[in-house]
Sequence to fold (68 residues):
Amino acid sequence: MDAGLWTLRCQSCGETFSVELTAGQQIVQFARSYVCPQCKKKPIDPTINKAGTWHRVIGFHSSKPTRH
Fold:
C-alpha cells in the first residue's frame, strides 16, 4: 500500500533522508523505527526522544505511474 519513495526528517538531528518501500511495507513502521543514516539513531530510543515519537514524513513519490 505504501510502495514508493518517502522522504523523512530525523527527529534527532533534523536531517532529511529517503526510504524506498515495496508493496506490503508500511511507512508507519519505518517512521517509528528506521535508523537515521546521518546520526544513526532511532526516533523511539528513550535516550534521544520520549517513546512514541516518529521521524516526520515530509514527502512521497509513487512508484506507480499515475492515470489521468
